Amino acid sequence: MSTDTRTEPAVHASEDPQPAAAAVPPSSPPRRPGALSVFRSEWIKLRSTRSPWWCMLVALVVPMTFGALITADSGEEIAIFFSLAGMQFAAAVVLVLAALAVTGEYRYGTIRTTLQAQPSRARVLWTKAAVIAGVAFLIGELAAFATYGVSKFFDTAGRLALRTADDWRMVAGYGVVYALLAVIAVAVGSLVRHPAGAVPLLLIWALAVENLVLLIPSVGADIYRLLPFVNGTLFAGDPMITGVTDPLSTLGSLGLLAGVAFGLLGVATAVLKRRDA
Amino acid sequence: MIEARSLTKKYGQLTAVDALTFSVEPGVVTGFLGPNGAGKSTTMRMILGLDRPTSGWVTIGGRRYAELDNPLPTIGALLDAKWVHPNRSARNHLAAMAALAELPERRVDEVLEMVGLSAVANKRAGAFSLGMSQRLGIAGALLGDPDVLMFDEPVNGLDPEGIVWIRTLMQGLARDGRTVLVSSHLLSEMALTATHLIVIGRGALISDCSTQAFLDQAVTAGVVLRTPDSSLVLPQLRSAGLEVHDDGPDTYLITGAAITTDQVGYLAAGVGAIIHELSLRRASLEEAFMELTADAVQYSASGVPDGATSDHEFALAAAGK
Description:
heterodimer; A: mainly alpha; 12 helices; B: Rossmann fold; six-stranded mixed beta sheet; 34% helix
C-alpha cells in the first residue's frame, strides 16, 4: 500500500547536533520576527508555485497582442487609451493572482503553518498584501509600457506619443491601479477564503456588476461614478473619452479606489484576527 | 511544558472541548487519546493559537501562543500532513517557514536530512506519498529545534516501517528532555509509544495517568470461574460485593473493583467449593478503551462506539473544522 520504501534514515533527535534541553533557556532569547521576515516568507511562497508566473506571462502578452492588433488595424485615429485596451484583461488576471495567493493558503491549509509561525495575523495579512501589491504594480508598469511600446511600433503614422502629464498617467497609472486592485483581491480572498468563491465574486463584480449599475435609470450614473473598479479605469483613463477632465477628479478616483482597498483590508484584518484559522 | 486550564471550545450548541485541564510534562512522550471527534485536534489547534478558546486558557512554557515572540523555536507541530501547497517543493515549503521564524537556511537542509527527504527536497510536495508527507510535516515541526512538540495522529496511514520510525523519533525527542504530545485514537499504538496518557471523550477529560496505570485499570475484564458448586460459592461472592454474570455452562464471569483470582479463590475455599477453572480475563486494549469512553462517544450503534463517522465530526465539519 505504501509507496514510501526508502531505507530507514535511522536518524532521531538524539543525534541532532544541537539538542535542546527543555530546562535550559536558550542563551539568546528569540526575538519576535519583524515584517521583513514575513515579507521574505511571502515572497518565497509567491515565487515557488507556478500559477503566479503564468498569470504574469498572460498579463503581459495579452495586452501587448491587443495593443499591436488595435493599433495596426486602426484607421485615422488612435489614442493611448485604446491601444492599452488589453490592460482591462490584465487587471482581471491580477485580481485572480492576488485572490489565489490568499485563498490558496486556505485551500491547502498552509495558512495554519503561516499563522503558527507568526502569531500576529495583521502583520501576516498586510505583508502579504504588500508583496502581492508590489508584484501587481510591476505587472501593471511592465504590461502598460510594453504594450505602449509595441503599439508605437505598429503605429507607423506616429500618432502615439507621451507628450503631456495626462499621457504619462494613462500608461504609468496602471501600476498604481493594479496594486490597489491586488489589495482589494487580497482582502476579499481573506474574507471569503475559498478560491471558487473569491475569484468569481471579484470577476463578476469588476466586469459585470459595476456596468449593470448604469442601467438603473435615474441614480445609476451617479452610483457608477463611485464604484471602485470604475474609478480605477477613470484614473488611468483618457479625459477626452471618460469626460473626467479635472485633475482633482482624476486623483479623486485614485483616492476612492485606495479608500475602498484599504477599507476592505481593514475589515479583512479585523475578521482574520477574530476568526478561527 | 503545556498547561491547559478549563479549556473550552463551543461551536454554537456543540461543545467540542469541555473544560479540559491537564499538563504535559517534559521528558516523556504523552499520549493524547480519544475516539475520532473527541476534540483532540480542536485542543491542539487551541494550543497553537489557531482557534480561540470559548473559555479557559492554555500556555506553552507559561506563555500563551500569541505572547510567544517567535513560536517555532518554542513549539513545533504537525497537525495535518496535507497542509502543504502541492506545487511547492519540500525545500521551499520549509524555507517559507524558516524565513518567518528567521531561522538560517541551512536549518532547512538539516531537518530534511533528519527525516530522510534530502533526495526529494526539490520535488513538488503534491507528488509525495502519505509517508513522505508525514516526514515533511515532521521536518516542519523540528525546524525551530523546539522544546515542545505536538503531533496529531502521526502514524495514520503509515506502513509499519514508518510507524516504527515515528515512534523511535518521538521517544528520542522526549529523551532529549523535550515535551512531546502525540494524539491517537488507537490505544494499542499509544501503549507502545507513550509513557503518560491523557484520555478524552466528547471533549471532556476521562483519565490523566501513566500508560501503565491506565492499562492496569482498563484491561482487567474480570475473573472466569468454572465450578459445579455454584449454589455454594455464588452467594458468597455476591455477599463480598462482587458481580456474577453467566458465561456458559457452570461458568461465571466475576467482576468487581480491583478483582483478582486470589480473592475469588479464597472466597471459594471458604465454603469448600470445587473449582475446575479460575482465570483472569483480560479485555483487549480496544475493548477496554471503548469501555472507558463508552459514555463519552457521541454516536454509537447498539452500544458499540463508532468512532469513524460520529455526529460530532459532522457537526465539526459543518462548523468549518
